[in-house]
Specification:
Blueprint lengths: L6 H4 L10 H7 L2 H5 L10 E4 L2 E6 L4 E6 L14 E5 L9 E4 L5 E6 L2 E6 L16 E4 L1 E4 L1 H6 L5 E6 L8 E6 L3 E6 L8 E4 L6 H4 L1 H10 L3 E6 L3 E2 L4 H5 L7 E9 L4 E6 L16 E3 L10 E7 L5 E6 L3 E9 L13 H8 L8 E10 L19 E4 L6 E6 L2 E6 L2 H10 L5 H8 L6 E7 L13 E7 L3 E7 L5 E5 L15 E2 L2 E2 L3 H5 L4 H8 L8 E2 L9 H92 L6 H45 L6 H32 L2
Parallel strand pairs: 4-8, 18-22, 26-32
Antiparallel strand pairs: 1-2, 2-3, 3-4, 5-6, 6-7, 7-9, 10-11, 11-12, 12-13, 14-16, 15-16, 16-17, 19-20, 20-21, 21-22, 23-24, 24-25, 25-26, 27-28, 28-29, 30-31
Helix pairs in contact: 8-9, 9-10
Length: 727
């Protein structure tokens, strides 16, 4: 049986991942050798329960392997499996998405979408079909007839619908400005169709008209689902209708001009099968360019209140807070006031009055080295990925690599919305503190502006107890880059018993002088505003000496300012704290020695007091016994009975009377018993008298019958005579 390796080797598994059989097989294919130039990042990889899935473009198959087997010291164990498609998709697959049930995989591209059904797991290691190397899987094409008959329509985004009870519904956003919901069990016809613009039908009829609409930014380009809410009850539904509560799943739709709309959808409520698009949502504070006219991606973070991240092709990221309720227009640059924050906690997405408050705007730096004569107007799309391990963090994949963004202010905003009993002024001060987002350039695939674009082909987050919290990135050369992710939501450990007694824990004088814990202070000092990304460029990248020198200077400057300088500052602070702690320790040791002396003296006095206490207890017991004897002697010599003796005599007399009464009653019972016994003997004698025999009874009945007949005849004769004689 295979055993796990040492703890030190567990952290090193990610260095061996790039040499895994699944990536070696991908690097040997033609698509990797030719290295086609790409601009749009793709999502051809995902991880689920320690199992990695990667799409093979050349063979149109899905490769899968278990990442946990890297931690096992068994070289013969090979869990690489190839899931073949019975009916392979005819379009180029660009994105993979696992269903909420974990049984189906969505394969989507610009010209269509298909659903691959995963086989069953069984066997020793829980592999698909017991560990077969190649497995045929069923693939269902979604809306194939629609995409074949409409050659100009492209699929902009496809995702699993979260409001499906079966987990088999899909949401499509197409370039003809329509939002459609499909059921994989009937994939040809959509379940619901929602129009997202007035010129939706013109896209398929006229290519020039669609280009004009796209230039104006009137085409929906991205969407994402918001948190669900309960549907409002109507009069008919409340009395005699369906009593089951239906949920509304709002869809935030982004257009190319930066406008954001809301579309309320539901599969269980008929009222939301054909709903109108609500918006555009008002953005505060207003901007002349509507925060960019080149929007390309949208992501809704799983927070309360919802936070929308809008990305533009020029590298700008806008963090917008969704607020429900009527708000007044503001021309100043102020952010959110108390009246607005109070409405965030009572957010109801079933209403139509929404506003977006742009909390901050971040500009990404794709290339560490910039060239002066390079055209800076060139823009590339950005793909947003929500972090499943932390709701306050998300990732951006683009032509220059991967960025990670952390929103520290979102945690305090959630606490303010959830804590209704807190004081408003203190909560507003905490929320109003300037806490800009932390931007990390994690992986760089484009060191200079002159380098060819090399967007990642896949991005996945591992959240496992054995594997850890790791970010995986697959480059165009089919190499897997791994970056550890630091935990964000770290709970403070409970206080020790020795730190205090009762409800108010004790606090040392050193802690009283510090307004925040020391580890928080060190963490704040080590917080970096810039970082050196992992460089991984394509095979066609050629950097000049000047660009390499600039890249080296930038990396050296970042290491000096963001790493070494901060670590030196932390070292000095820790040395100061160690010095203070040593002084405190010496003082405490002196206090402890003094306390030990007091303790020894108190122990001696306690021993003396214990001896005197023992002698006093013995003397007291002797005196109590003597007093008891004296009282007993006095009581026995008194001529008059005491009250207790009188009560006892009265009780004994009453018991004697009761005994006499019981004796008389017992004599009566015995006499009655004798009488009953005599009466029973007489009854037995009477019951023993001889009875008539059968012949005697028969003769007696015969005689009685004859006499009865004679009497009847005599009566008849008398009646006849009376009739003859008359009255």
């Amino acid at each position: 049986m295979a055993e796990f390796s040492d703890t030190s080797d567990i952290d090193e598994w990610r260095y061996d991942l790039n040499s895994h059989a699944i990536f070696q097989k991908l690097r040997q294919q033609k698509s990797c050798i030719k290295d086609y130039p790409k601009v749009q990042p793709e999502g051809l990889m995902f991880v689920h329960e320690g199992q990695i899935f990667v799409w093979d473009k050349d063979n149109s198959s899905l490769l899968t392997a278990s990442l946990r087997d890297i931690l096992v010291n068994d070289q013969t164990l090979n869990t690489l499996q190839e899931l073949l498609c019975i009916s392979a998709p005819i379009f180029e697959v660009e994105h993979l998405a696992l269903s909420p049930t974990g049984q189906h995989v969505l394969l989507s591209g610009k010209r269509g979408a298909s659903v691959l059904e995963l086989p069953r797991r069984h066997g020793k290691h829980g592999l698909f079909e017991g560990g077969k190397v190649k497995i045929n899987c069923r693939v269902t094409g979604i809306a194939e007839r629609f995409f074949i008959s409409n050659s100009t329509v492209t699929l902009l985004k496809a995702a699993w619908y979260p409001g499906s009870s079966t987990g088999m519904h899909l949401a499509f956003l197409t370039s003809d400005n329509f939002f459609r919901l499909y059921d994989t069990r009937s994939p040809l016809k959509p379940v619901q169709t929602h129009r997202l613009g007035s010129h939706a039908t013109s896209y398929a009829l006229s290519t020039s008209h669609s280009t004009f609409d796209a230039a104006l930014g009137e085409i929906a380009i991205a969407f994402d689902f918001g948190p669900p809410s309960e549907a409002p009850q109507t009069a008919g539904r409340g009395r005699g209708g369906d009593q089951e509560d239906s949920l509304i799943h709002p869809v935030f739709v982004l257009r190319g001009n930066g406008d954001i709309y809301v579309l309320n959808t539901s599969l269980t409520d008929v009222r939301y099968s054909h709903t109108k698009l609500q918006g555009p949502l008002t953005m505060h504070p207003p901007a002349e360019d509507n925060y960019g006219m080149d929007a390309c991606s949208l992501c809704c973070l799983a927070s309360s209140p919802p936070v929308l991240v809008v990305a533009t092709s020029s590298g700008l990221l806008h963090h917008c807070i969704v607020v429900a309720g009527e708000t007044e227009d503001r021309d100043d640059a102020s952010s959110i006031h108390s009246s607005d924050l109070s409405s965030i906690s009572s957010l109801a997405l079933s209403t139509s009055s929404f506003s977006l408050f742009v909390y901050e705007t971040v500009e990404l730096t794709r290339c560490p080295v910039s060239v002066d004569d390079y055209d800076g107007d060139i823009s590339y799309p950005i793909m947003l990925h929500a972090d499943i391990s932390c709701g306050k963090r998300y990732f951006c994949s683009h032509s220059g690599g991967v960025h990670g963004l952390l929103l520290p202010w979102l945690g305090k905003l959630e606490e303010f919305c959830q804590d209704e009993g807190a004081e408003e002024e203190d909560s507003l001060q905490e929320v109003g503190q300037d806490q800009p987002c932390v931007v990390r350039h994690m992986i760089c695939t484009m060191p200079s502006d002159t380098c060819p674009t090399s967007p990642p082909l896949g991005l996945a987050v591992i959240m496992d107890q054995l594997l850890g919290n790791i970010l995986l990135c697959m480059t165009q050369t089919r190499e897997c880059m791994t970056t550890p992710l630091s935990p964000v939501d770290v709970k403070t450990p409970p206080a020790l018993i020795s730190e205090g007694r009762g409800d108010e824990p004790a606090m040392s004088p050193l802690r009283q002088t510090m307004s925040e814990p020391f580890h928080h202070y060190i963490k704040r000092l080590l917080q970096r505003s810039h970082s050196n990304p992992i460089l991984k460029t394509s095979s066609k990248t050629q950097l000049g000496l000047e660009e390499c020198f600039q890249l080296l200077l930038r990396a050296t400057k970042t290491l000096r300012e963001e790493y070494i300088h901060r670590q030196d500052t932390v070292r000095e602070e820790m040395e100061k704290r160690v010095k203070i702690l040593k002084q405190q320790k010496e003082q405490q040791l002196a206090d402890i020695a003094e306390c030990q002396q007091f303790k020894a003296e108190i122990s001696r006095k306690a021993e003396k007091l214990a001896e005197r206490h023992g002698d006093a207890e013995e003397k007291q017991e002797e005196l109590i016994n003597r007093v008891g004897v004296v009282l007993h002697t006095l009581q026995s010599q008194l001529p008059i009975l005491s009250e207790a003796e009188q009560n006892m005599r009265t009780e004994l007399e009453s018991l004697t009377d009761k005994m006499d009464h019981l004796k008389k009653a017992l004599d009566q019972v015995k006499a009655k018993k004798k009488y009953q016994d005599k009466y029973k003997e007489k009854e037995k004698q009477i019951s023993n008298t001889p009875a008539l025999s059968q012949n005697q009874e028969k003769n007696l009945r015969k005689i009685l019958t004859e006499q009865t007949e004679e009497i009847s005849s005599l009566i008849a004769e008398v009646q006849n005579l009376a009739t003859v004689v008359g009255p």
